[in-house]
Amino acid sequence: MTLFVGCTSSPLCLSEPVSYMCSGENGAGLDDDVLRWGIRDSSRSNNDNIPNGTTAYVERTNVSTPRIIGTYFETILTSSADPMRSNISFSPVLAINNYTILCDIIGTTPFGCSIIIAAAPVSNDIKFTSDTLIFSWTPQSTSPCLSHYSVNVTSIEYTINTTNTSLSLPVHSTNDTEYSINVVAVDTGGRYMDPTSKITFIADVPGSVTDLFINQTGLSIYVSWNEPDTPMPLPLLNYIIYFNVTDLYTTITIPAPATTYMYNIPDVTVGSIYTVGVAAVNVLGTGPTASATIS
């Protein structure tokens, strides 16, 4: 019988060396075994199962030096006595995708192991997920051959290779800087797919809040607003509320994010004129203040 060790149905990764072992005997009890390797290109039509290359070892011969089959495969005999044993090794390349490695002890059922090269990985879905200039991404496919991610920020000439799935951009000179960001997943052979997601934006402080409304009821002033309507990938940190009486300003900070906020300014002075303003804040600073006056 023939025993084949190491063959897997999982795709192989480019440039990651592979080694299989074949052993066996024909069971006749004579020193007449022949262990044979063969390589077949399974993608060829009408190949009639004829190997592209072969090599054979005869029982009781000296353990040999390595032999080459074709361009990519190397074999070596490790035991010439029953059971005979031999290894075959190779480094996966695209040229051998769909090849089949054959091994048998002549007179026994041969064993075939198919070579499938894993496809290049794909990455997409760049998302800003933090209150700083940190962004993350999610692989679109879970390639077994992922080597690293290549992150390119074209407008500031920033490129990095990383195995992480998030990255912090340099914070200096970010205001009014246009960023163009893309991420590609690279496999062990250096292959990658074109990026399927790209973000282009100008990093700046938030725009002005919208729909500012103030209303006095009794001794309280109620303030409400909506978030800035200018899309920004940088999350809002908080809102600052300014209000004053006779030029004495008071500031209150409340956390973000939220789609709508309302705040109650208590203990106002009857007959006084109040100016109330609201500004949004992100990691780069405070945006313009939207204000209104009530008396």
Structure description:
This protein has no helices and 24 strands. It has strands at about 1-5, 20-25, 35-40, 55-60, 65-70, 75-80, 85-90, 100-105, 110-115, 125-130, 135-140, 145-155, 160, 165-170, 175-185, 200-205, 210-215, 220-225, 240-245, 250-255, 260-265, 275-280, 285, 290-295. The strands form six sheets. The chain has a five-stranded antiparallel β-sheet, with no helix packed on it. Strands 19, 20, 22, 23 and 24 form a five-stranded antiparallel β-sheet that branches. It is rod-shaped and about 115 Å long. The mean pLDDT is about 85.
Q: For the terminal residues, how far apart are their CA atoms?
A: 99 Å
CATH architecture label of the largest domain: Sandwich
Count of discrete domains:
3
Largest sheet: 5 strands, antiparallel
Residue runs with pLDDT of under 50 for 5 or more positions: none
The amount of helix comes to under 10%
